[in-house]
Amino acid sequence: MIRSVLKKCNLFERIKNITCANRPKQIMEGVPLDSRKRLAEFYQSPSPKKTHFVGLTPLKELTNISSPSNRPFRVSIEGNIGAGKSTLIKYFEGFEGIETNAEPIDWWRNLDGYNLLDLLYKDINEWCRVFQSYVFLTRLKLQSAKPKNSSTTVQMFERSVQNNRFCFLEQARQSGYLKGADYAVLDQWYRWARSNVDINLDLIVYLRSTPDVVYERVKSRARPEENTISLEYLTQLHDSHEKWLMTEDERFNTVPVLVLDADKTRDEVLEQYRLNEGKILGHDKKGTKHITKEDKSKVKKTLDLD
User: Fold this and answer.
1) Same domain, 35 and 117
2) 199 vs 6, 211, 282, CA distance in Å?
3) Which residues are catalytic?
4) HEC states along 2-48?
5) DSSP single-letter state for residue 111
6) Which pLDDT band holds residue 24 (cuts at 50, 70, 90)?
7) Matching InterPro entries, A to Z (predicted)?
8) Are 134 and 16 part of one and the same domain?
9) In this structure, what DSSP letter does residue 165 have?
């Protein structure tokens, strides 16, 4: 309904990237009041409700996965702090032909003697811009690098350049940690990289968790830099992941997403890895069940996306 109204008014291109709260009144002329309210809700909507959904997100079907011929299959492991990304990376380390890339935390802990990770958590308002700039650079280096061995068939990354842009940058902007100019510069860096460097992903594995669960895990593992992480911060990151990966808005993501329940026990999570090895490594693409409109409708209803 909203799109049809906008199309008639020839306004869609003018407003699709602008929030209603900041839009001049004249831009909305000709749009019925009811549609204005619904449009505002569309741009300011919260993340989808928590569910126990596990599988491939709608419109990002397994049949959409393709293996490029000029490089290895690329898969990114995404999720909140404490969701179990490192565990999944370690699970696949011994597989033949698989190149795993853990988060370059050591680089962040020692940049010419500066521990940027520690500085960030101690004063996020002061150090967010610097930290995100360096994180972008390090992720870009890893994600655009050629495989270490000619026999590599899969490159696996713990988080991605896309995560940095559509999750952490968005969360930082909404929380006020990044000001307008800082955000604009980092966004332009991403746009340049996307247009000039092959940072494409073929699959995203989303270790979906709840903030309360990962908060307890973070406290239990007691990493020095993480002792100031709050439940509120983890909740914000959770919401950013949900908005990025659990909707059908292709402005944010067009990559197929495999969703796994990361709230389970370690053994249960490892069993999910075992059962989904073929999907995660890009093997299970042919002969898969086609997702019907009815299937998509059920998933959308489950995720409260209507």
Assistant:
1) no
2) 33, 29, 17
3) 158
4) HHHHHHHHCCHHHHCCCCHHHCCHHHHCCCCHHHHHHHHHHHCCCCC
5) B
6) very low
7) Deoxyribonucleoside_kinase (IPR050566), DNK_dom (IPR031314), P-loop_NTPase (IPR027417)
8) no
9) I
